[in-house]
């Protein structure tokens, strides 16, 4: 028997229990009948964003804003001595005003008036499924739009050509005003269709300093804004360069940031915050990456209407009066060319668009 195994066998039962539970990837809480936390493991700390010292002996209601549902489940388990399971329970953390979705299992400790609560976070798995669905819808929509755009461009070319021929045959110059309108409108519609088709430019990948890109975006936004606008920076100075097309990436970030600027038109103390971070062991559309650059673009605007959130990246969907609904579609297309993706969270007073780009891309 090895020395390590011998030492484990010689450990007191409580130390063994703490060591085993402490290394589980499942979040574990031990609660008494009064809903006080008697024990929490490392995974619970990570999930609930608190330390063991802070959580132990505190009430469940001190950890969760919506603790009532979980407390009812614990009470039911203690009353009936039965194991209860609830799928995809939403837990709203007090420490960060953040929602966590978890599968919950409550097991009563018979004779001890205590319950073992297992919390398996499902956010990552739900996000992977959602991202895959979004990517599939995005691809289907893109193919549909491309087909529709080509069908529109063909007659537009005929209309413009016919107007130009007609213009040459008109007897009076004042009549050319009408053919001029036809030609200009045909050109405008052609340009709109080209934007719907997206960029056909092959990205020129090179090592890019993301903070230089964001500074250019910030200055352009500050110049474009028709009202006082505060642009805050929260950059991680340790970030490495990302392999990207500098101009395309700037255009994508500018599209997202300009959207944020435009919805702040009637907001007092309008603020946009640009934040950079690294996410490790992150999955993008089924591919696991060791390190991912995350760029957050946050605004304190009214939020995105619920009825368009599921379709926000589709062409012609806009949350702004007079908008074309192509800016986010184009941005998503560019980020997809960088093997990344865009996600967002929105509620009144705060909208966050998060752009994820793998750091280990090949050039």
Short summary of the structure?
By secondary structure, the chain is of the alpha+beta class. Helices cover 44% and strands 26% of the residues.
Tag the structure with descriptive keywords.
Beta-Lactamase; Heat Shock Protein 90; five-stranded antiparallel sheet; alpha+beta; 363 residues; elongated; single chain
Produce the secondary structure layout.
Blueprint: H1 3-10, H2 13-22, E1 27-32, E2 37-40, H3 42-48, H4 52-55, H5 68-80, E3 84-93, E4 98-109, E5 114-121, H6 123-169, H7 176-197, E6 206-208, H8 210-224, E7 230-234, E8 242-244, H9 246-263, E9 271-284, E10 287-299, H10 306-309, H11 327-337, E11 341-347, E12 350-358
Parallel strand pairs: 7-9
Antiparallel strand pairs: 1-2, 1-5, 3-4, 4-5, 6-8, 9-10, 10-12, 11-12
Notes on the protein architecture:
Strand 1 and strand 2 form a beta hairpin. The chain has helices at 3-10, 13-22, 42-48, 52-55, 68-80, 123-169, 176-197, 210-224, 246-263, 306-309, 327-337; strands spanning 27-32, 37-40, 84-93, 98-109, 114-121, 206-208, 230-234, 242-244, 271-284, 287-299, 341-347, 350-358. The radius of gyration is 28 Å and the shape is elongated. It is an alpha+beta fold and 363 residues long. The strands form 3 sheets. A 5-stranded antiparallel β-sheet has the order 2-1-5-4-3. A 5-stranded mixed β-sheet has the order 7-9-10-12-11. Helix content is 44%, strand content 26%. The protein folds into 3 domains: 3-121, Beta-Lactamase, CATH 3.30.450.20; 126-197; 206-358, Heat Shock Protein 90 (2-Layer Sandwich), CATH 3.30.565.10. The longest helix has 47 residues, at 123-169. The relative contact order is 0.08. The model is unreliable at 1-12 (pLDDT under 50).
């Amino acid at each position: 028997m090895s020395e390590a195994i011998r030492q484990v066998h010689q450990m007191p039962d409580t130390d063994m229990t703490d060591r085993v539970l402490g290394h589980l990837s499942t979040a574990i809480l031990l609660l008494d009948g009064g809903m006080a936390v008697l024990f929490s493991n490392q995974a619970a700390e990570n999930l609930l964003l608190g330390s063991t010292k802070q959580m132990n002996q505190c009430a469940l209601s001190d950890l969760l804003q919506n603790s009532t549902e979980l407390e009812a489940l614990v009470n039911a388990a203690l009353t009936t001595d039965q194991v209860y399971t609830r799928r995809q329970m939403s837990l709203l953390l007090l420490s960060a005003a953040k929602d966590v979705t978890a599968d919950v299992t409550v097991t009563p400790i018979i004779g001890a008036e205590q319950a073992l609560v297992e919390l398996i976070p499902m956010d990552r798995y739900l996000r992977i499924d959602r991202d895959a669905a979004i990517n599939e819808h995005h691809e289907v929509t893109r193919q549909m739009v491309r087909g529709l755009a080509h069908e529109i461009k063909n007659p537009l070319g005929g209309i413009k050509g016919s107007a130009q021929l007609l213009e040459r045959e008109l007897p009076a110059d004042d009549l050319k005003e009408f053919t001029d309108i036809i030609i200009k409108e045909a050109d405008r519609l052609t340009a709109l269709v080209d934007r719907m088709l997206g960029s056909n430019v092959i990205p020129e990948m090179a090592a890019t300093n993301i903070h230089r890109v964001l500074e250019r975006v910030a200055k352009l936004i500050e110049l474009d804004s028709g009202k006082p606008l505060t642009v805050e920076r929260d950059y991680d100075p340790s970030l490495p360069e990302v392999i990207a097309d500098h101009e395309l990436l700037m255009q994508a970030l500018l599209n997202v940031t300009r959207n944020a600027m435009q919805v702040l038109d009637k907001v007092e103390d309008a603020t946009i915050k640009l934040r950079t971070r690294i996410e490790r062991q992150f999955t993008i559309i089924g591919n696991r990456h060791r390190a991912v650059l995350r760029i957050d673009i946050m605004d304190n605007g009214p939020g995105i209407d619920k009825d368009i959130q599921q379709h926000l990246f589709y062409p012609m969907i806009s949350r702004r009066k007079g908008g074309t609904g192509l800016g986010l579609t184009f941005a998503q297309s560019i980020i997809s060319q960088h093997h990344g993706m865009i996600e967002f969270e929105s509620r009144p007073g705060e909208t966050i668009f998060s752009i994820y780009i793998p750091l280990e891309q090949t050039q």
